[in-house]
Structure formats: structure tokens, C-alpha cells
Amino acid sequence: MPAVVISPFANERVRQWPARNYRELIEIIGREHGFPVMVVGTREQRAAANDLVRGLSSEQVSNACGKLRWAELVEAIDEAPYVATIRASPISRLGAGGGPFASSRRAMRSRNGCPAAPWPSRSSGR
Question: How many other C-beta atoms lie within 10 A of the C-beta of residue 41?
């Protein structure tokens, strides 16, 4: 089963969604939808990703930060049932091939009916 790709990091900390929200999103994806999750980012972001996934089953989530070549990342995105990232991430510029694509600032959605994420965006003022 292909993994949901999550890119939780931004080049500017002010643009980054809180890690606890990504953690909750990962748990919801596994619990309610049964998809594994792949957290992606740079080698420098690997330690922060380890903190994010600590305590979760390695069958549910993997930390691929700094491990994938660009072509492998594009392939993972193309195969992913969902992709969640922020607009400031390089992944947001790739799109998701023909598949569903969501920004963490918008509701996560897909043609498979994933429910809207329960968290307001920082820009909404809530």
C-alpha cells in the first residue's frame, strides 16, 4: 500500500504548522484510514522528524527525511493516496501528479473521501 506523504517543515519557522497537529494528522490517517505515512524533508530536518514520529509504530510511519533522492521523492508523491504539506515547502511546487494534493493550511481532501482536517489554519485567526 502506498504511503501518505507528509512534508511538515518550512524554510521559515513562522510558516511551519505546529508539530502536534502533524502528529495528530498522522495518527488519524493510520487509525481511521489505514494508510502508512512517510514523513519527508531534508537531512537537517531528520532529528525534528524523529521527534515527530517517536513512539509511533514503524509499520505506521517512516522518517524518510534526507534519505530519498529527488526522483524517489517525486515517485512517492505520484503514488501517494494523499500529500500534505505547506505552501512554503519545495514539495508544494511539485504538485501531486494527477493525484490529490492538500496543503496543511487547507482541509485535507481527496477523491477517496478523506475528511477535512479538524484544525484551523493559523491564517484563519482561530
Answer: 25
Q: Which domains does the chain have, with CATH numbers?
A: 4-124 (3.40.50.2000)
Q: Which three cell numbers stand for residue 51?
A: 521527534
Residues 10/43, Cβ–Cβ less than 8 Å = no
- Asked if 106 contacts 91 with a C-beta cutoff of 8 angstroms, the reply is no
**What is the per-residue pLDDT across 15-26, written as a single tens digit (0 to 9) for each?**
778 889 899 999
- Beta 61-63 vs 37-39: how paired, if at all? parallel
Cα separation, 16 vs 119, whole angstroms: 14
* Ranges of the chain with pLDDT below 50: 88, 93, 95-101, 103-126
What's the start-to-end Cα distance of the chain, in Å? 35
C-alpha cell at 125: 485567526
Residue type (1 letter), 2: P
By the 8 A CB rule, do 22 and 6 touch?
Answer: yes
Per-residue cell: 21: 497537529
pTM, to two decimals: 0.72
